[in-house]
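Honest question from a wet-lab person: if I give you the sequences of every part of a complex, can you actually get the arrangement of the whole thing, not just the pieces? Trying it with mine:
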Amino acid sequence: MRSMPRLLLAPALAAAGLIGVPLVALVWRAPWGELAPQLVSSTARQALGLSLGCSLSATALSFALGVPLAWLLARTAFPGQRLVRALVTLPMVLPPVVGGVALLLAFGRRGLLGAWLAALGVTLPFTTAGAVLAETFVALPFLVVAEAGFRQVDPRLEEAAAVLGARPGFALRRVTLPLAAPALRAGAALCWARALGEFGATITFAGSFPGRTQTLPLAVYLALEHDPDAAIALSLVLLAVSVAALVALRDRWLGA
Amino acid sequence: MGARRRWLAGLAAGLLLLAPAAPRAETQHHEITVFAAASLSDCFRELGITFEHWTGVHVTFSFAASSLLATQVQHGAPADVIATADEVTMSKVADLVEAPHPFAHNRLEIAVEKGNPKRIAKLADLARSDLAVVLAAEEVPVGKYAREALAEAGVSVAPRSLEADVKAVLNKVALGEADAGIVYATDVRALPAKVDGVEIPDSQNVIATYPIAAVKKSADAESARAFVNFVLSEKGRDTLAHFGFTAPRIP
Amino acid sequence: MLEAELALRLGTLELRLELAVKAGEVVALVGPNGAGKTTTLRALSGALRLAAGRIALDGRVLDEPARGVFVPPEERAVGMVFQDRLLFPHLSALDNVAFGLEARGRRRADARTLAREALERVGALELAGSRPGALSGGQAQRVALARALVVGPNLLLLDEPLAALDAGARLELRAELGRQLREFKGAAVLVTHDPDDARALATRSLRMAGGRAES
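Yes, you can. This is the full assembly:
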């Protein structure tokens, strides 16, 4: 093992501590005795089910929309490309509540597109679909930055594939995507994690209603106001689900 | 060696000379933090400006749902004064504050879009299936009161969303996403350009009582109490009335 | 039979070349780096488009800007062995060789059978299950050769096939390459900077410099 530069030890420990101590505190101070009824309460189950469903849907949607865009940004050159790239990564720096307001102004009843959708009978605010949309809005950028995954695939390999007789679609499926897969998977995992924890955009755009739009983070926020024990219980559920998923993914999918 | 000791002594003497000056400097820059229910935001901001003008004490506000504020105070948040939208929430922090005083009342009102395009006239109208109605969550005082009023009136409502605080309810109506929401009369007055109010008759209404109290562990108890007294004073009552609150009934 | 009049610009290089290669002929393009040899191959493979001129293979026009004709690489019957081999790192040697066949519509089982035969012909059958990362330079080159030949091209392009090999592997591979080129029925263009390789493998040499042929 390489000897560690002593200079790095203190900051590294501080980093681990900054993240670790609050999480340990959460687990330590949890009222384990009263936890059981909280964990199986209908609020918790509804919120968890909704969170999982919405976050997975948002990830799938982000994948379907983000990967093609990532490919276009990596492999083509079109006018305004830099603007598009900056635009699509904007939700990463935008405060989520601002994102929620923007979504309302776009897809709300009086929104830019929302007014037309309403005329067609499609409502997005206050619906589960709206929650998925809000989560996709904040999580999509994580897949678009998987553009780097496409870039690190040698374009000459795609050239070789073409000379061998592969049409662009075949080359994409059999060469580019498999080679970009590790980066795409990592992006998808981050995307899912972001969607799962999303709060501001969801509560602003989709509102909060149990079983319909009240995902775990929203349930925790509300519970905090009247029942801190319930809030801690729900937080532990969220924590457990996240840790389980990330640990499972790390070994098989995200590992080098 | 000797030089250093002399230098330290000089420094210590200098500090001692400055010490009496320090408290004087402090009285110049007092600051208190006031936690207040979301529905008090516009009114208290104005009270804060007047208070600073009169006493030189700068007031920083934190507005949120009363229940959340109470939880934060319970966990040691640095509030000097807390004002909640109901007495039940204040009782949660009873052991952390000095005796609370009711300083204002608020009544419920239905907030609707400017111009009332959906022609909402009474609580019973909120049960209409063509309306998008938004309420505050039950854990929030205004949400609890709204439910009480609806139950008393025998109206069954299917809200689209249960928001985290009263301002969120108001905003949904102001943005045009909801047709109606039950908020406080003062909230309706806060956005006259965007929102109209439909009165709820006394018989169906729930009167909210707002208590205010100084926090015991305040770093500046004197200024905290001064603010509480200011809110209870005639000037305070005038400002509250201006924003739509009603005066506390003298017990 | 390859008939080509090439005219294109790539960066600072201006390529102007006339090339005619009969079936069974191996023409070596010799010259220093930057002479335009690889560019020539890429124009013939379709990776680069001509600015002017014409490429025709066995009577079929592959690229003629004046008439707006351009056949993309995947539709030309061209096989290419690249300078860095460019084997697909995520596929086994066998699947690498089978790739071109599958791309052209063969079922996987058939493609693999033909691929095995092709690997045997270049003496690399035992490498079938290996990943490109595990192969030596010479071994990888054999696989690349099999990959190019198995699809039955009419034109074979080889870009510095013996570069980056140690002396022993070079001689071995040069012998193998010579065998394959003699058996190959179509036209072949070989790029090399080594005149000895050109002499050993080609029927004719063409010196290039600065994007043009030296007379």
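Two things worth pointing out. The two ends of chain C are 22 Å apart (CA to CA). The mean pLDDT of chain C is 90.
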